[in-house]
User: Fold this.
Amino acid sequence: MTSNSIGKIFNFTTWGESHGKAIGCVVDGVPSNINLTEKDIQPYLDKRKPGQSKFTTQRKEEDKVEILSGTFEGKTTGHPISLIVYNQDQRSKDYGDIKSKFRPGHADYTYWKKYGIRDYRGGGRSSARETAMRVAAGAIARKIIKNKIKNQVVITGALIQIGNHKINYDNWNNNFIPKNNFWSPDKEIIKIWENELQTARKSGSSLGAIIEIRVKGLPAGLGEPIYEKIDSDIAKALMSINAVKGVEMGNGFSSVYETGISNVDEMRIKNKKPLFLSNNNGGVLGGITTGQELITRFVVKPTSSILSPKKTINTKLKETTISTKGRHDPCVGIRAVPVGEAMVATTIADHCLRFL
Amino acid sequence: MTSNSIGKIFNFTTWGESHGKAIGCVVDGVPSNINLTEKDIQPYLDKRKPGQSKFTTQRKEEDKVEILSGTFEGKTTGHPISLIVYNQDQRSKDYGDIKSKFRPGHADYTYWKKYGIRDYRGGGRSSARETAMRVAAGAIARKIIKNKIKNQVVITGALIQIGNHKINYDNWNNNFIPKNNFWSPDKEIIKIWENELQTARKSGSSLGAIIEIRVKGLPAGLGEPIYEKIDSDIAKALMSINAVKGVEMGNGFSSVYETGISNVDEMRIKNKKPLFLSNNNGGVLGGITTGQELITRFVVKPTSSILSPKKTINTKLKETTISTKGRHDPCVGIRAVPVGEAMVATTIADHCLRFL
Amino acid sequence: MTSNSIGKIFNFTTWGESHGKAIGCVVDGVPSNINLTEKDIQPYLDKRKPGQSKFTTQRKEEDKVEILSGTFEGKTTGHPISLIVYNQDQRSKDYGDIKSKFRPGHADYTYWKKYGIRDYRGGGRSSARETAMRVAAGAIARKIIKNKIKNQVVITGALIQIGNHKINYDNWNNNFIPKNNFWSPDKEIIKIWENELQTARKSGSSLGAIIEIRVKGLPAGLGEPIYEKIDSDIAKALMSINAVKGVEMGNGFSSVYETGISNVDEMRIKNKKPLFLSNNNGGVLGGITTGQELITRFVVKPTSSILSPKKTINTKLKETTISTKGRHDPCVGIRAVPVGEAMVATTIADHCLRFL
Amino acid sequence: MTSNSIGKIFNFTTWGESHGKAIGCVVDGVPSNINLTEKDIQPYLDKRKPGQSKFTTQRKEEDKVEILSGTFEGKTTGHPISLIVYNQDQRSKDYGDIKSKFRPGHADYTYWKKYGIRDYRGGGRSSARETAMRVAAGAIARKIIKNKIKNQVVITGALIQIGNHKINYDNWNNNFIPKNNFWSPDKEIIKIWENELQTARKSGSSLGAIIEIRVKGLPAGLGEPIYEKIDSDIAKALMSINAVKGVEMGNGFSSVYETGISNVDEMRIKNKKPLFLSNNNGGVLGGITTGQELITRFVVKPTSSILSPKKTINTKLKETTISTKGRHDPCVGIRAVPVGEAMVATTIADHCLRFL
Assistant:
């Protein structure tokens, strides 16, 4: 059953396992005559790259992306763009426990049940390594959005909560986001998060996180009614990211605490143009963009790969325990920021090509 | 652009406007030789029907469903099943304000921007009336699930929160759910919700709600990796329901308050079968069912159609106000319960047909 | 498994059985603000209608089409257009032989093998009655083509061969086509065909036919490379019509008698525009229109429903014979002309919406 | 617009240009636990490889295929299989005429009109080099068919006509097919074809061909009614091959010379199983396999790349002439045999996975 592709007009297909020869992506539906080289993609892969701070895994993944097709003399040709990143570390090594034990919280058990065979090396296809190619596709999506929308569209992802500690929205500073290891928009929370993560790591545990993605500059009219609403497509795209357990738009789950009076976004005219007096709906009504800022959030559960030993079973259905040694992110949510941006970008690019 | 269909193998397409001649649905991908008559579908439409209590709209919609194709002598033939419900009330009437004003919180403005034309009568295609056909498709989906899965699968939707008031999970009683106007599993909260809704209605306002859907009896192995995970498909399906602003699986957004230690679902063996010691992940790992209960929740924003006058603009881009008179649900979330159940059922049926 | 829809952007789904309550079609992807009423569709259904001459079946099918959704005040709204045609003759009657015997040359046996159940009344879903809805969708497709392409696009279907008798291309007269019962462009062949069909009918037999569809006025650039070439989409669309056994473009199978020198279409400049000196490729190169006339042909096998008794088996796997009494077309190819036009129109409309 | 993928359940996406870095293919929907290594694929690429006789181009393409993902310890894992073939000859060279002139009969002009940019090196994406990846996907399709169908399924492609010279079916010998440079089943025609091709080559011209594909061992029941009939899917798949101008099933265009009496395939019972007394329909009725041999044919036009100078225009819309020097197949139809087999195999594999 095919399930490694997403998008209707802007569509990409990813392939590859964590410890296979390479991972890659075929991006189809890209209009012709857009400037595109590896330099447009590499920075986003670098942004997602692990080992950038002590709060992300110290594994070295030199993810050098190569364009194998679909461009000519630095421009897209309208034909599929094949991207490849060779895996650095393919030495055969002892995968020990992972080979026969199911890591709780991971897809090990469900893949084994479904397929009866499993590339256990680093999680194989279920590894978050796959998200590198989403980020690559997202970089191409950004080029399309720029090409199709006259306004400058800015997609900003930020970490807004780790564990119990949420940012103060009053401190939100876009400029600060790329200057810290957490993609935090709030300078004051950094110390708190650092302490929390140190504590989690020392106790062999991990923390969850919430990411917010904001998109400025979108025109009204993106999205299709009923089953391909831009928000339902975003929900699907974000929920498909490893470890994501929830997605919301605008006020999201907090809407339950609003009333009809407080929650509808009233309209006025300013400079002869429609103006919304609030943005409780996150820039989407009836599945179609309003022209306001699009706002979405998703939650990433605490990393399941932890040092603390956990009860599990093995492929012989015997009880055992497992402890994940080695370098792992105490909060995978941090690295999910560029991935979430990419998934929003690819969804928007897809709807741009349907509409514009 | 096509966007009125959902599902890959079990697929349905809905059509029709709130105040057009009829609404309908074509369900394709239904296996042959399944018993099916209108009697299998009508009860679910009745369940969704408005006017059942004073907390849902008093409009009379006698939604009598008719099967036009795809069955022969009471059994499915493997060919598309066409369902139709004629709209009762098509008299031309004065639509007054709605004709030229955009109701805030509704799709009026975005549809007008996107299409340049709009069937304003009752919201036209953007009306929640469309969800009647989702419920009809859901009834057929349930028949397929029953046909394909040996275990008895039970899909239970319940309202768990209105406004500030959340049920007490300790009081959860499945038997009580169909016996009250709210689909509440908690008898003790009824009075509170009634009072809240009375207050909201009197003040010309409305309230939001959270719905939880639980599915018992699913086998391990349903769902496809990467971009067609069962949870990302559920997220898309639920987010596509009118007024839904968030979707979550298992612990959902509360995962952020968990740690890696508390959140992973440990495994043991019981009666020679795998047993999970908790269900924080809502029965899905890596996008594939674990064999545990599947748990998902979604939030419905407060009804946007309220009596209180709200600032808005009209199609001539002039400022004005609008007040929605007439019979409207003070909490549309209540009627979203059977719709949510239906969308989960259709998603599961689709994945059953891919896997089983 | 879903298979009752066709088209990517302009998409339609048909439903209904020959002797069920109704047949219908949901057309999605139609742009908004196109004038559309039943009057735009009915003439094409009338053109396909049986009983127009003694060479098509004398059954009376008053195919009155009704639009149930997707238009407002005579214009399309961008939402799905639901069409319905009620079947006239649903009286229960004795279906006799057909109930248990497989008609050779029909889908009776294969449907029974595949589904284990079969609506035998008039062939049920496999009846050519389904093509009425293709013709209806084709009428809407024509409106889209007109809306999207500035040139006047003219789609002309014609019968060019019945049995051994092929038209003389030198006699081709577009004006004559709608003026005869055969959609023949050649006045001189009429008598011959009439005699042939009389002879076939009297001997309890039937004849095959070849239909040619020509499309004038298309711009260069329609069609997508590799797997969604406009000619491969046309091949699929035409081959899906009942009784069609072959499809070709331009010189088609006769290309085998050409050489590289004779077959390539040389180019010149005329009035500062590219000019092709021939059209051996039927207006398509590399799956994309050249701006020349698009030319395609398909063959319809002789009607399988014939009076002469034929050997067959029944559902109990016993040997028997069957003779199809009643009114049947001695050459179904005649009525395939408007159906072929419709399938070409829908394919072109789909590619227009991708490109223009 | 996406158009580089084909297939619903068994699906593959190709990428790459004739003279780019590499060409490749991502095959999705392959069931797990099927033995698969490069050794299963390479022989089919070798079969398609040019330079095998003086009647196919003498270019050296060492098409070494590499599996980059989707297998583990020699077995498929259920995840996408990425295949790559690096292009040998990427030296920059003088492409001369091709850069600015449109080769008549090729996609040069239509690609340029559609995309406004064109990788002119060897035809870029429009080159028949893309078909190498179809052959690779076809090799995987064959493994699936073997895995899903109990009978031994044999797919046999053969050249049955070059120019005016058609094989004698009475001489058909399956064993001879792989033993000659033409994939001819008829030993006696070889000399004639050799002479014809020599003559064509010497006169700077080329010849067309007809290929027949036969599939033995298929069960009844493959194929979906209405718009995904197995024959309409085959028509689409074969018509998408470069230079193909027509496709037919069973008697195909010759059906026009049959009558209802002669053309229906009568049925009897033999050894308690249904038996067809003829196979005029090519093993398909109503779009579904009958259990007989499936028979399809397609025509490949004469190679458009010929030495004889032809009139054309250039990108500045000036008149000019072009003569294609270098090594080119005088009959591309010969190398289309393994490609046609592959497209039939992938279509059948797709329908196997839907049905079995």
Remarks:
- The first strand of chain C starts at residue 5 and ends at 6.
- Residues 97-355 of chain C form a domain with the Chorismate synthase, AroC fold fold (CATH 3.60.150.10).
- The helical segments of chain C are 38-48, 97-100, 108-115, 131-148, 190-202, 230-239, 260-263, 336-355.
- The two ends of chain C are 32 Å apart (CA to CA).
